[in-house]
Design goal:
The chain is α/β, with parallel strands linked by helices and 767 residues long. It is built from 32 helices and 20 strands. The strands form 4 sheets. A 7-stranded parallel beta sheet has the order 11-12-10-13-14-9-15. A 6-stranded parallel beta sheet has the order 3-2-6-7-1-8, with helices on both faces. It has a 5-stranded antiparallel beta sheet with strand order 19-18-17-16-20. α4 (88-99) packs across α9 (188-201) and α20 (435-444) crosses α21 (450-469). It binds a DNA duplex (15 and 10 nucleotides) through α3, α4, α9 and α26.
DNA sequence: GATTTACGCCTTTTT
DNA sequence: GGCGTAAATC
């Protein structure tokens, strides 16, 4: 296979780049992932580098996984060694598990996620006598994180970030770091910082790893922060083979510490760097690309690229003003139905600025029986039951992990109440020792009250049993023994519905299976635990879903045939809290650019003056987003002129109530989509929340028996798939459940609505 | 210790 | 308007 044959001239230059630093400025849809993967293959193919000397860094696990697959596809199977493709964080954690003893941590350190951080901060606030109302833990933590991302420690905090409460934050920062240290724990930011510290402080280490990873490639470079930048500097100080790909117009994580200057200043930071621009877009229609470019050209903080495409100009973009958020959702839903009828293979996304906007879309889609997937709902590893088990494992391996201990010491309830725990943590704090140690002392102390003491002893016995086996038993065995030992199932069933408990137990089974698989692959315990700690909700994105809902942030790096940008209103997008500075506004505009450029073929824009907002400005109608005003009117239908804002001038279909512009919309009146009746044979009862709706649908779908979780073995039918039935016509599989030896399918057909079918008899044809 | 009521939040968040 | 956490209560 000739690697260079599928590349355009600029891509080829990038892929063939020799040694030394290189910056690839790659516009949206210009094939930047392709460039990275081909370059990796090219380096190996031409024996410029051995696979193990190559490190490719991405920001998400998902991106890393995809890249790994694509490289493998290019290289063919079975090589002696593989290039390392991972996220910044997992790369660092892996190295730290080998080297962190040099910094005085034990190799079995814990990783604190946001939840753990918050719990720890609450304790600290209490201990420091600060009021949570004045200094909310989230706020404090975000400021600490901001400081960490700028390489500012507690000592410099006050001078670097002067503010009325800087003294307080500095003090809390100090305590926070100390407590992490005592707990033998790192937060997400520390993972990078400690790695930087290690390479900085130990030249032999720096040398060793620079020689090891002598070719480094970075994706999404515009979103790197200070510590990541420093890490790259340290790792490439010897060989200078740093190859970064990014797009300054897609830098949207400033609020998380990403520094757009990293990409803007690359040539200054790495003298002699080659710069290559990828300006041909392969993804979108001409009109979509033109629209995106026009909008982003209003920004000043950019290097400037001129994107062009050979694709057809395509449809005009449609902009829709609706009479309420509800109508907006109904309109989007109608469009989606029509689009899927026209082309069932479309992948469609509804993108919005803030998560709470998903609600209306979910309700309408659910009611209409259109299968969809939301990105950003609870991730697998974020589930309560999984986090409980992870906490058990953490305390078994790291007895200093107070946060893990406190999470599970009374889960399930074993008579160790709040007052007992308060006393114990207080004591631990005074002595400066792990809570577990105090627990052990308390359990041995005969003076302490019988009841609590007994409970502690029983807990310690269990724990000691697992600890004794932690090095001999497999992880799966350990997990099983925990689940049984604590009678977790019993606890779940006690205060949750049967379905919910069953679903949680299924998750646990899945978790144990994942542990088994991990062990079969020869991974260490920590490799498994680290993956669990570092995986995110984005990783759960279902690529088969026809309709996906997510925030604009989550959509970066993805592409869809059809994109709906919803909530295009001043105050929401750009968000009112990002309208204060020019820089903030530019970031919002980049976000808009990201949203537009996700679309391959069709783009729809939606807004409503009457979104129900809470807060101070509730009630007053919103204006259309300034980004709509920035779009060339000839490309957008319905965005501009006064009559576009007027009532009922659409020949769309029968819904003239959609455009009720002023007060006439009655909240009690059923919205159009409900009035017309659902296409399903059973109308939905009035339910309050999405959660309720989901549970209701789940129940109706599982009518007979709550089967086992979806098994993708056999026929290869999956929920979300488009199928054809001889009698009923085309439809979408809503769910697939095992019932006995069969699979029960719930399918929504566009003609006849929802049907329950047995896979074996239905003779469905996948489309 | 568990269950109920009450208050407050309501931007994005790759790890 | 709804959801999650935090006092309040039995």
């Amino acid at each position: 296979m000739d690697l260079l044959a599928d590349l355009n001239p600029q891509q080829r230059i990038a892929v063939q780049h020799g040694r030394g630093p290189a910056l690839v400025l790659a516009g949206a849809g210009s094939g930047k992932t392709r460039v990275i993967t081909y370059r990796i293959a090219y380096l190996i193919r031409n024996a410029a580098a051995r696979p193990e000397n190559i490190l490719a860094v991405t920001f998400t696990n998902k991106a890393a996984g995809e890249m790994r697959e694509r490289v493998q596809a290019l290289m063919g199977p079975s090589r002696t060694s593989e290039p390392r493709v991972s996220t910044f964080h997992s790369f660092c954690v892996r190295l730290l598990r080998r080297e962190i003893h040099r910094l005085g941590y034990r190799v079995d350190f814990s990783i604190y996620d946001t939840d753990d951080q918050r719990k720890l901060m609450k304790q600290i606030l209490k201990d420091a006598g600060k009021d949570e109302k004045v200094l909310p833990p989230r706020e404090v933590l975000s400021r600490i994180s901001f400081a960490k991302n700028h390489n500012i420690g507690p000592e410099q905090y006050v001078s670097q970030f002067p503010s009325p409460d800087a003294e307080d934050i500095g003090e809390l920062f100090e305590r926070y770091n100390t407590r992490l240290r005592q707990g033998n724990a790192l937060d997400f930011d520390d993972i990078l910082l400690k790695m930087v510290l290690l390479l900085d402080r130990f030249p032999d280490q720096r040398n060793y790893y620079s020689d090891w990873f002598r070719y480094i490639l970075v994706d999404e470079y515009q979103d790197t922060n200070r510590p990541q930048y420093e890490l790259l500097c340290l790792l490439t100080s010897k060989h200078q083979n740093l190859f970064v790909v990014g797009d300054e117009d897609q830098s949207i994580y400033k609020f998380r510490g990403a520094d757009i200057q990293n990409i803007l200043r690359f040539e200054r930071d790495f003298p002699g760097a080659t710069t290559i621009k990828l300006e041909q877009n392969y993804r979108s229609t001409g009109n979509i690309l033109k629209l995106a470019t026009t909008v982003v050209e209003n920004n000043t903080e950019r290097k400037g690229k001129v994107l062009w495409t050979e694709n057809q100009s395509g449809d005009v973009i449609t902009c829709r003003r609706s009479g309420s958020a509800r109508f907006e959702a109904a309109w989007v839903c109608r469009q989606i139905r029509a689009l899927l009828d026209e082309e069932p293979k479309y992948r469609i996304a509804i993108l919005y600025r803030a998560n709470f906007l998903s609600r209306n879309f979910e309700e309408v889609l659910l009611a209409e029986g259109i299968a969809y997937a939301v990105v950003g709902s609870v991730a697998f590893f974020g589930r309560m039951e999984i986090k409980d088990l992870l906490a058990y494992l953490r305390i078994i391996f790291n007895p200093e992990d107070d946060i893990a201990l406190l999470r599970i010491i009374n889960t399930p309830p074993r008579g160790i109440g709040a007052s007992t725990l308060d006393m114990l943590t207080q004591k631990a704090l005074e002595k400066g020792v792990p809570v577990l140690q105090v627990v052990e002392e308390a359990a041995r102390d005969p003076r302490l009250g019988g009841r609590a003491c007994k409970a502690l002893q029983r807990f310690l016995e269990l724990l000691a049993g697992w600890q004794a086996r932690r090095d001999t038993a497999t992880m799966a065995e350990l997990l099983k023994s925990i689940v049984e030992g604590i009678e977790y199932k019993k606890m779940l069933e006690k205060h949750e519905s049967a379905e919910e408990a069953a679903s949680r137990m299924e998750n646990i089974d899945e978790f144990i299976r994942a542990a088994e698989e991990s062990e079969e692959r020869g991974e260490t315990v920590f490799e498994f635990l680290d993956r669990a700690s570092l995986s995110s909700e984005l990783d759960t994105l279902d690529p088969n879903a026809r309709v996906s809902l997510m925030t604009l942030h989550s959509a970066k790096g993805l592409e869809f045939d059809v994109v709906f940008l919803a909530g295009m209103e001043e105050g929401l997008f750009p968000h009112s809290q990002s309208m204060n500075s020019r820089a903030d506004l530019e970031e919002e505009r980049r976000l808009c650019y990201v949203g537009i450029t996700r679309a391959r073929r069709k783009l729809f824009l939606a807004w409503t003056p009457f979104r129900r907002n809470f807060g101070p400005d509730a009630g007053s109608p919103s204006l259309p987003s300034r980004f709509l005003e920035e779009m060339p009117p000839e490309l957008v239908e319905g965005s501009r002129s006064a009559q576009d804002y007027a009532v009922g001038d659409d020949d769309d279909d029968d819904d003239d109530d959609d455009d009720s512009f002023s007060g006439e919309e009655d909240e009690d009146r059923a919205p159009a989509w409900k009035k017309r009746g659902s296409i399903n044979d059973t109308p939905l009862p009035q339910l309050k929340s999405i959660a309720e709706l989901r549970v209701y649908l789940q129940k109706t779908q599982q009518a007979a028996k709550p089967g086992r979780s979806e098994q993708s073995a056999g026929a290869g039918l999956k929920s979300g798939m488009r199928v054809r039935h001889a009698q009923f016509g085309d439809g979408i599989i809503l769910s697939r459940q095992r019932v006995g030896n069969d699979f029960k399918l719930i399918v929504t057909f566009s003609r006849v609505g929802r049907k329950t079918l047995i896979e074996r008899y239905a003779k469905l044809e996948a489309l």
